[in-house]
Design brief:
2 copies of one chain form a homodimer. By secondary structure, chain A is α+β, with helices and mostly antiparallel strands. Helix content of chain A is 35%, strand content 21%. Chain A contains 13 helices and 18 strands. In chain A, strands 1, 2, 3, 6, 7, 8, 15, 16 and 17 form a 9-stranded mixed sheet that branches. In chain A, strand 4 and strand 5 form a beta hairpin. The longest helix of chain A is centred in the N-terminal third of the chain and has 21 residues.
C-alpha cells in the first residue's frame, strides 16, 4: 500500500527547478521518481523528449468503450529563492503541525501524490476497474510550458481519444471549502520599446526641442484606460461573455468579504471596471496591467538626462470568448495608431493563451452536447468532495491563467475538470511552501471515490 | 613667466573627482596646486572649510575706489568613467594635435589656466594695475554645489563689495565664434513615488480589483503636458518673460541650422511648445522633462506582477522670471490634486536654482541702473574677443543651468559676465575630454585685454 505522505516527501526531495539549468539533475530525479511510481501502479510509461525537459506520458489502457481520463500535472517547481527566508531547507521536506513543508509540496507534487495515492488504491482494490487513464506530467509548467504546444500538435490524435482532462493545479479558499474551477483567464501581452533621440541627451542643453520617450510612453500607456476604468482599446470588449447568474450566485457564497479583501490587498479603495464588484472583476472581467516600466536614470539622486529609450511590459488577462491573438493584435494596432511622430516603436511579444471556461452539468447554459462522461465526472466529483470534505464544492472561475488548458481544448476539443487543492496558506511560489496533510488525506479519498464513480459499470 | 599649457597639464594631473570619496587626495592636490599658483601671482589665499570640499577664496586688494571683479571657477571634475573609452589615461594629460586631453582639461581647469595666465601677465606687466580681484574656486560644482549656498550667506557682505562676477563655465559653438552667455535656465524638480497595494501582487489572481501604481503614474505624468506640447501646470507660464527681439536676432546668427540640429539629435522631427523654433525653445522656453521612470519587473522576459510601487524623476528648466520654489510648489500642488484615490503619493525634492539673465549695455531692455563697471566689462570683453578671436561675440542665453549664478545674484545682487570657452568638440563629462590650445592661447590674450580695459584710470 502506497503511503501518500512518504511518497510526497520523497518526491519533494528532488530539486526540480525548471527555470535554472543548474537543476538538471533534480529534474531528471523527479521525472524518474514519478515514472517509477506510475510503473508500480501499473502504468505503461513513456518519456517524450522536448526541446528542454521531457514530458511523461503514461497509460493504463483497456476497452475502448471504457471512460478515458487524462490526468495532467507537472514535476517541475519554482526556484526556492530567497533561500534565507525558509524556516527549514526547501528541498529537505519536514512535517510541522499538519503540514509538509518544502518547495513543490503544493505546486504541484502534493496534488500528484493525491492522484498517485488514489489510483494505487483504486487499482489495488479492483485491478479490472473499467477505466482508462492517461497521465501527462510536464516539466516546464513553471516557465510557461514552451514545449507543450508542439507536444499537443504531435500527439493530438492519440489524446483526442480521451473524454476529458482532470487536474488539480488551482486553488480553494481553505481546507473545508473546495472549489471546482470552471474557468481560467487567458493571458497575452507585449513589451513596448520606444526610442527618441539617438543617445541620452543633456536636458538643459536640449530640453524643449524634442519629445522625451518617457513622456511618449506615459501618454501611450495612459491612453489604454478610459476614466471609468475600462480598457480603452477599440474592440477589446466585443467578445466578452457576461458571467451567468449562477456564477455570480456561487461567488456570493465565497468565504471572503469585500472588506477582508481590501485589507488583504492593502488598498484604501478598489478600482474596477463598471458592472463588477472587486471579487467579480478578478474572475469575470478582462484587464490590461502594466507589469513593469523603465527608462532613463533610476539611481539615487538626480541625473538631468533626456533618455534615448523607455519601455513598458504590458499583459492582459482575458475572459471567454476573447481570443489571445485577436486581442494582442488590437493592442498593437492601437499603440501604432497612437504613437506620436518622432518616436520609434518596437514590440517584443509574449507567449500567452486564450481564456477557458466549462459549464458543469445542470445549469441553464450547459451545452446540450456535453460529453456524458464529463457530466458524470462532474457529478461524481461533486458527490466525492461533499462526502470527503463535508461541504458541497463551489463552482467558480479563477482569475489566473493555465494556458495549456485552453490549448488542450483548442487542439483536442477536451474540457477540463479542475479540483482546487491549494489554499492561500500554502505559500505557492514563496518561501515556506507547504501542503496540508488533511487535504492530502481527504484528497486521496475524494479522487478514489471520483475515479470509481467515473468507471463504466 | 607662467606657461598656461604647462600649468593646465600639471593641474589636470590631480584626479579631483568630487563625486567619489576615493578621490579625496586628488581634490586636496588640485586645491593646493591652485592655491600655490594664486599665491605666486600675488593673491592672499584663504581655504574656507565646508561640509565637504573646501572653497578657495583669494584676494588681490587695493583702493576701494578701484573696480572689483570676482572670478569664479571650480577645481573639481567629473568622474572619468568609463575608463576603457579613453584613448590615453584620464589623469595623464597629453597633447594630440592642437588639443590637451584629460579629465577636467575643459571643465573647468582649462578656463582657470586662461584666467591664471592672464592675471599673471597683467600683474607682471603692471604690478600697480588699479583692479581688485577676488578668486572664488569651489570643489563641489560637479555634484551640485551643495555647500555654496551656506558659504554665500556667510560671506555675502564681503562679496557684495565687488562689482560683478566673471566666469568661463559655458560654451561656444567653435573656436572662431565665442558666445557671451547672457542667461541660464533655472532648474527644479522632484521625484514622485507612488504606492498602490501593500506588496507586489499576482496579476492573474488580483488583476481588475485595484489601481496599478504604474498606470496611476503614467496617467499623472501624461497629464503634465497639453497636446500642443506646453506644460500643463496651471500658472506655469505666468512669469515667463518673452525673449527680446535682439536675442532672437543674435540666435539667428548662430552657426547651426535646424536641419543640422535635427540630425545631431537623431530625431525625425522636433517637438516644441508653440511660438519657438527648436533652437529658440532650448534657450528661451521652459520645460518639464522626465529624467527617469521605474516600477515593477524590468528583467528579461515576463513576470505577471502588479507592483506595489512606481516612481518618476521630473525636472523642469525655468526661464526668467520664473522662480524655482514657486514652480516646484505648483508642480507638487498639481500632482496632489490629480493623484487618484487609492494611491499613496510621496515626493523627494531635488536641489535647484532659479533662472538667471543679464542684459548687456546698449540694448532697448538694458536696465537704466546697470553698474557702470559691469557695462565697461561687457564693452571691454566684446572688444577683446573681437580682436583676439577675429569675430564679434554672440550674446545668447544658454539652456543649461549653473544654479550658483542665480544664487549669487539673489544673495549679493551681483550680475555675471560669462565668456563661453568650451566647444562641443571638448567632450565635457565624457571620455577623451580635451581643451583647444588655440582657445587657451586666445583666451589668455582676451582675458588680459579685458582686465586691463576694466582697470580704473
Amino acid at each position: 500500500m502506497l503511503d501518500p505522505v512518504q511518497l510526497l516527501s520523497d518526491y519533494v526531495r528532488f530539486p526540480s527547478v525548471s527555470a535554472d539549468p543548474a537543476f538538471r539533475e533534480g529534474l531528471a530525479g523527479a521525472r524518474q521518481f514519478a515514472c517509477g511510481v506510475l510503473e508500480k501502479i501499473g502504468f505503461k510509461v513513456e518519456v517524450i523528449p522536448t526541446g528542454l525537459h521531457p514530458i511523461i506520458l503514461a497509460e493504463r489502457g483497456g476497452d475502448h468503450a471504457w471512460p478515458h481520463v487524462i490526468i495532467y500535472g507537472h514535476y517541475d517547481v519554482q526556484p526556492p529563492d530567497p533561500l534565507d527566508k525558509w524556516t527549514t531547507p526547501a528541498f529537505d521536506p519536514v512535517i510541522r503541525g499538519r503540514r509538509l513543508y518544502g518547495r513543490g509540496t503544493a505546486d504541484n507534487k502534493g496534488p500528484q501524490a493525491v492522484q498517485f495515492g488514489a489510483l494505487a488504491r483504486v487499482f489495488e482494490e479492483n485491478p479490472n476497474l473499467p477505466l482508462r487513464v492517461t497521465f501527462l506530467i510536464e516539466g516546464e509548467e513553471e516557465i510557461g510550458s514552451p514545449s507543450f504546444g508542439d507536444f499537443l500538435k504531435k500527439h493530438r490524435e492519440r489524446l483526442r481519444e480521451a473524454n476529458f482532462v482532470l487536474l488539480s493545479d488551482t486553488g480553494s479558499p481553505n481546507p473545508e471549502q473546495i472549489v471546482i474551477t470552471t474557468g481560467l483567464r487567458g493571458l497575452t501581452g507585449l513589451e513596448i520599446n520606444l526610442t527618441g533621440p539617438r543617445t541620452d541627451l543633456h536636458s538643459g542643453i536640449h530640453g524643449g526641442a524634442l519629445l522625451n520617450p518617457i513622456q511618449a510612453l506615459c501618454e501611450l500607456c495612459a491612453s489604454l484606460h478610459a476614466p471609468d476604468g475600462r480598457v480603452n482599446i477599440p474592440g477589446f470588449y466585443d467578445d466578452v461573455r457576461e458571467p451567468a447568474q449562477w456564477e455570480r450566485d456561487e461567488l456570493a457564497k465565497y468565504p471572503r468579504t469585500l472588506e477582508d479583501y481590501k485589507q488583504f490587498l492593502g488598498v484604501s479603495q478598489f478600482y474596477t471596471a463598471p458592472g463588477y464588484t472587486a471579487l467579480e472583476a478578478v474572475r469575470f472581467g478582462p484587464t490590461l496591467d502594466f507589469n513593469g516600466i523603465g527608462g532613463g536614470y533610476q539611481g539615487e539622486g538626480s541625473k538631468t538626462v533626456i533618455p534615448s529609450k523607455a519601455f513598458a511590459k504590458i499583459t492582459m488577462r482575458l475572459v471567454p470568448d476573447q481570443k489571445a491573438e485577436v486581442i494582442r493584435e488590437l493592442l498593437e494596432k492601437t499603440l501604432r495608431h497612437r504613437c506620436p511622430p518622432g518616436i520609434k516603436m518596437e514590440f517584443s511579444l509574449k507567449e500567452g493563451g486564450s481564456p477557458y471556461a466549462v459549464v458543469p452539468p445542470g445549469h441553464p447554459n450547459t451545452p446540450a452536447d456535453q460529453s456524458p462522461v464529463l457530466a458524470r465526472a462532474f457529478q461524481s466529483a461533486d458527490a466525492a468532495i461533499t462526502e470527503c470534505f463535508g461541504r458541497k464544492p463551489l463552482y467558480l472561475r479563477e482569475g489566473g491563467s493555465v494556458p495549456i488548458i485552453g490549448q488542450i481544448k483548442q487542439q483536442t476539443g477536451l474540457d477540463s475538470l479542475m479540483i482546487g487543492l491549494f489554499t492561500p496558506e500554502d505559500n505557492l511560489h514563496a518561501p515556506d511552501e507547504s501542503f496540508s496533510l488533511d487535504i492530502l488525506e481527504r484528497g486521496v479519498n475524494t479522487y478514489a471515490k471520483l475515479l470509481k464513480g467515473l468507471a463504466a459499470g
